[in-house]
Design a protein that fits this description.
Length: about 500
């Protein structure tokens, strides 16, 4: 697409372009800037001046090279006879899409989590004003969504003015999210999918249901349904549910079929309500990430805005890297705040009874949806700083996870094999006879408990030592199944 005088190229070829710190001219939003948002509002036709772009506060050219974490509000106002307020969230999510069409301009995340960077190269070419960005957005929106008859864009960079609109934006997001609460997955005949983030995560397919919001937190089931209707060839589409294969895990044959097709065969099965069993893939725009803590057999949750280290000593960025990119990583799971408000929230894994740690800010945002008997038993960064402290905290508070420890210990103890007699092996002449360790593997929540009975040679005193390795991960690259003949049995 060309716009007269536009200083850089515009096209889908630039989707997925990453601008690293050493390449950037300036940066807006991100984890270190609290006040940032993007918002779309539907207005009457007479209230919108088509093509108008304004900048309130310092423009790009007013910033020094290397400026970081600048405040930013993006307000897109649209009008059209067919537009409705219910479409705002759908249109808003396309800001991410269209900004990334601009050469040297990177847009990540959504709503109050936006993070934008401009490259030095594009700045030198003349992309030195938000006015250019606004012109591109106006042209792209009207080209891709013809139901938009008029559009105007405002960029707010003045910190005080961004603050003024920030709280209003949060209220609007909450009102949108609340529209779908109460609707159940079992009550609808279809789900919806989104591949908007495949430019960054090629194998990721977001499955959106009434009770499992999009990972980015910006698209509800209602939003997705509207998007699929107004832009049938766009990144949001209908998914036929098919047969329910497991209501607890949240697995449907139709979902598996669609995800396999849209991920080009990379992902074959998805369970929507589990972080362990064929978990939903993660893009890079998720609001929060769940992570497994094997020492306590529980889940921690950290949100993008948390700047410190989690209880396992890792920040959000590191944990996010462990699950992003469209991968299925058992025990690591990208999710939205709204999904945490769902009755289906990780129900196959124990739901809130499995959550043991989360930042105080995140806990505050969802506290109305956490069972009363669990809320005060979930630790935060204000309560513990490491896993040992967490374990002590959970015991003192009587968190339900402690009962799981006792149950597992009882089961493991019951399954422990009896000590087997050492098996002698032939040795070279003159060498001491050494016994082969007898081993048994018992499944545990964190992997396997591997028990080795290790007898010592008679010359060393002859006792047998039991070595117990907990939470062992066993990986086999090849398995050979061979039938033993009667002759071979006799030889043995």
């Amino acid at each position: 697409m060309s716009i007269e005088g536009f200083p850089v190229d515009i096209g889908v070829v630039y989707e997925g372009e990453r601008i690293r710190k050493h390449e950037m001219y300036a940066e807006w939003g991100g984890v270190k800037q609290k006040y940032k948002f993007e918002l779309v509002r539907v207005r009457p036709l007479e209230a919108v001046e088509d093509g108008k772009v304004q900048v309130i506060g310092p423009d790009i050219k007013d910033l020094p090279e290397g400026a970081k974490a600048q405040p930013l509000g993006i307000l897109v106002e649209v009008a059209g006879e067919q537009l409705k307020e219910e479409m705002e969230g759908v249109i808003e999510r396309r800001i991410h899409d269209f900004c990334n069409y601009i050469e040297g301009f990177m847009h990540l995340n959504q709503r109050y989590d936006i993070w934008l960077r401009l490259s030095k190269k594009s700045f030198k070419k003349g992309l030195n004003s938000f006015t250019w960005i606004g012109k591109a957005l106006c042209r792209l929106f009207k080209s891709e969504l013809p139901i938009i008859e008029k559009i105007q864009v405002t960029f707010i960079t003045d910190l005080e003015k961004v603050k003024e609109m920030f709280d209003e934006a949060l209220k609007i997001y909450e009102a949108r999210d609340a529209r779908v609460r109460g609707l159940k997955d079992e009550e609808v005949d279809a789900f919806y999918g989104c591949t908007l983030c495949q430019s960054f995560a090629p194998t990721h397919v977001c499955v959106i249901t009434p009770q499992r919001y999009s990972n980015c937190g910006a698209i509800s089931w209602l939003d997705a349904r509207i998007a699929a209707q107004i832009d049938p060839k766009g990144p949001l589409f209908k998914i036929e549910k098919g047969d329910c294969l497991d209501p607890v895990l949240g697995e449907w044959s139709g979902v598996n079929k669609t995800v396999k097709e849209k991920s080009l065969g990379e992902v074959e099965r998805v369970c929507l309500y589990s972080a362990f069993t064929y978990p939903h893939t993660s893009c890079g725009c998720f609001e929060c990430a769940a992570f497994y803590i094997p020492e306590v057999d529980g889940l921690g949750i950290v949100h993008r805005g948390f700047a410190g280290n989690t209880v396992i000593g890792l920040p959000f960025t590191t944990i996010a890297d462990s699950t992003a990119g469209g991968r299925q990583v058992p025990g690591f799971h990208g999710l939205s705040f709204e999904y945490m408000r769902s009755p289906k929230f990780l129900q196959a894994d124990g739901g809130w009874e499995r959550v043991v740690w989360m930042p105080s800010e995140a806990k505050e945002r969802v506290k109305g949806f956490v069972p009363d008997e669990i809320l005060d038993k979930i630790a935060t960064e204000k309560d513990v700083s490491n896993v040992e402290e967490l374990k002590k905290w959970l015991k003192e508070k009587g968190h339900p996870i402690v009962a799981r420890w006792k149950e597992e210990e009882a089961v493991e103890e019951e399954k422990l094999p009896e000590e087997a007699a050492p098996a002698a092996v032939p040795a070279a002449p003159g060498a001491p006879v050494v016994a082969v360790p007898q081993a048994a593997a018992v499944p545990t929540a964190g992997g396997y408990q591997l028990v080795l009975n290790l007898p010592m040679p008679a010359a060393a005193g002859g006792p047998t030592y039991k070595i117990i390795l907990k939470d062992v991960k066993i990986i086999a690259k090849k398995m050979i199944l061979k039938k033993i003949t009667e002759e071979e049995k006799k030889k043995k």
